[in-house]
């Protein structure tokens, strides 16, 4: 157990990776294996280890949950609304990346993910946490 | 005291506010009243309360430490290198804003700040924490 004089938030990273393929825009999502939002789809992501830089955590979580590696991520924005996670205050730093490819790269749900899948952005169901808001913010700025 | 199953970082906000006046670019800095980096200059900022949104924390800290209010802040980037704060892991969300004015607004160091002052960006001494890096990153993107 870890004890502090003042309360602290949990810190996570989330990765929003897009692929444009045959003129359709896809985003890489995972189906959550655990609560909260169990079975709902979400961006791959998870908790930052205390001895790793935040960017390193983003690449690690993306790899652990989807097997997807080899493409660049850049920091997008940090989401910290007080009530965005029912487990308690959790602040998430969102990373993003894009690629173009005739074929969607093979991905596989692992670790905290039941499945990983490229999903057409046009046809998304509601996502876990505040990921619909994050997606909406990303799509306003996406250049691909 | 607050106890958690896994270690957590401290979460801060920092505010980098620029004013262009008579063709000179100034940034609003405070002289730190407390350690670490006591007496060094830094961006106004401080710890996020657990019941406040991160943007609200940025406006609050800027006001508390400098008295400066009434201008807009937008989120710039989050800094989370493992060793950026000698007190332990601290992740900081940086907000920024700009204005043009013939006269520099009156500011006053309060709370954790011995002084607050508009300083010419061209003539800065080394800043506390990783604020030199943050300043360098900001100046690459600043449009004023």
Automatic annotation (TrEMBL), chains A, B:
Keywords noted in UniProt: Hydrolase
Origin superkingdom: Bacteria
Name of protein: Nudix hydrolase domain-containing protein
Name of a matching Pfam family: NUDIX
KW Hydrolase (keyword) present: yes
Family (UniProt): Belongs to the Nudix hydrolase family.
UniProt cross-references to Gene3D superfamilies, sorted A to Z: Nucleoside Triphosphate Pyrophosphohydrolase
Molecular function GO labels: hydrolase activity
Domain Nudix hydrolase stretches: 8-141
The keyword Hydrolase is assigned to this record: yes
TM helices/strands, residue ranges: none
UniProt cross-references to InterPro entries, sorted A to Z: Nudix_hydrolase, NUDIX_hydrolase-like_dom_sf, NUDIX_hydrolase_CS, NUDIX_hydrolase_dom
